[in-house]
Amino acid sequence: MWERFYGKNLAKISVPNCPECTSREKKKIEAKYEADFPEEERNRDALFKLFDEIDIPMKMDEKNRRHFICKRCGLYATREEISDIKFKLNQRERTRDDKHDDYLEWWSKSKKEKAEN
After folding, report:
1. Which end of the chain is more exposed for a tag (fewer CB within 10 A), N or C?
2. Residue 98 falls inside a structural domain
3. Are strands 59-60 and 2-6 parallel, antiparallel or unpaired?
4. Which domain holds residue 53?
5. What is the pLDDT of residue 25?
6. 34 domain-assigned
7. What is the CB-side half-sphere exposure of residue 33 using CA atoms within 13 A?
8. Residue 111 falls within a domain, yes or no?
9. 22, part of any domain
10. Whether the predicted pLDDT of 117 surpasses 70
11. Bigger pLDDT: 72 or 3?
12. Is 70 exposed, middle or buried (0-12, 13-18, 19+ CB in 10 A)?
């Protein structure tokens, strides 16, 4: 946390974590967790606790106070860009099975509608 003095108030500025480095660390932890524990012993809560321990703070740019820099990977972005990157990284990619399921669902709905008419 950084502190900045605004008039009489002392405001705390939260520094975001680097989304790219955090995502890489989560993948490493998840792979290690899956290798160490058999499927019946896995606990998602324990895995999420490990994810919460990841702390890779970015540094605020001295010249432009609206941008943040990751010392690890070199990402240079505003808060909005960081949130966009987080959103993209958290989205699950559509697999062929997902597309197949969507098509099957569409096909079955279309059959039901034809039978009702």
Report:
1. C
2. no
3. unpaired
4. 8-92
5. 92
6. yes
7. 18
8. no
9. yes
10. no
11. 72
12. buried
Q: Which amino acid is it at 57?
A: P
Q: What is the distance between the alpha carbons of residues 86 and 89, in angstroms, rounded to a whole number?
A: 5
- Residues 52-96: pLDDT tens digits? 888 888 888 888 778 999 999 999 999 899 999 989 888 877 788
Strand spans (E) along the chain:
2-6, 9-13, 59-60, 67-69, 76-78
Written as six digits, the tokens of 69 are 């820099």
Cα distance between residue 57 and residue 72, in whole Å: 10
The percent helix, strand, coil of the chain (3-state, each to 5) is: 55, 15, 30
The pLDDT score that the predictor gives to residue 6 is: 52
- Sequence length of the chain is 117
Better pLDDT: 94 or 47 = 47
Tokens 């990402």 -> residue = 75
Which residue has tokens 């070199």?
74
